[in-house]
Request: fold
Amino acid sequence: MAQILDGRKLSEKIKDKVKADVAKLGQYGIEVGLGLLLVGDNPASKQYLNATLHACVKPGIKAHQFKLPDNVSINEVLNLVHSINKDERINGLLMFLPLPKRINARRVINEIAPDKDIDGLGSLSIGRLAADESTFQIFKQGDYESLYSGEFIPAVSSYLPCTPFGVIRLLEHYGVEIKGKHAVVVGKSLAVGKPLSLMLLVKEATVTVCHRETKDLKYFIRQADIICSATGIKGLIKEDMVKDGAVVVDIGINVLEDGTIVGDVDFAAVEKKASFITPVPGGVGPVTIAMLLENTVRSAQKGHYMKHPLIIG
Ligand code: NAD
Reply:
């Protein structure tokens, strides 16, 4: 029976540290603010918005909500992003995706100031990760917190995409060895599959990326030491596709008609074969939100440190 990779537990630990960092900034009169921008009324985005609002409470991050109607013009969205970029109260901006189809999401994402791109999806943030120039490359295994212990704040002005970074943090928290392992990532989106593949490569896994055009998915997944699935297809990963002792990370989210949330993996059958497995809900999701809060406080710390290098810590 697999050991559960408990995202809720890890997220609480991360939020405790964020809370301490927020309190420290509070001593200097600094309030940490997170901008949340929702365009339209996508139900999954609303759910994510509510979960994020709830998660801000414990660490004391002030949430600033912005809601635009589904029929808004791209010009109005851009104007709002520009005003948030200049808003001193807001250290990071999360824009919920997908945007309505008419709106070019990449254009909008790239207008978010890199210093406030705490979802790490702008071209600069993704490019730095791909070019070995992001904070991910200077983090040592398990050393994320000491890097930000107070006296040293890395000057890199880009943040890591929250979901893939959350996956890596979850694996490392449970001592799962990545180096030298064969990781198979299912899904190649810019938000999840692609940056996760890059991160696993940085950690020196051998990485295979599968997607909807992959012929014979089972052939590839059967070879995996670590399986990371991010497709949104319920039951895609079945027990006969998983080798004994594999580590299974389920990133997918599917909301069933009765409101139940399930992932991509046939959990009940696969947990009997895997060595570690994430539940859905309670696995990657909470850590994703914790990463968002962590990136937000880092942004506030960086602004403070750059203005007052001698008094932080
Ligand atoms: P997406 O639609 O952009 O990408 C889906 C990917 O799945 C594509 O690359 C596609 O090629 C691949 N795919 C589709 N059908 C496939 C098949 N039959 N076989 C193999 N690959 C297939 O979605 P996304 O934004 O990457 O999100 C993926 C899933 O992860 C969704 O369910 C989303 O809700 C979830 N998600 C979860 C979190 C979290 O925090 N847990 C965060 C972001 C996204």
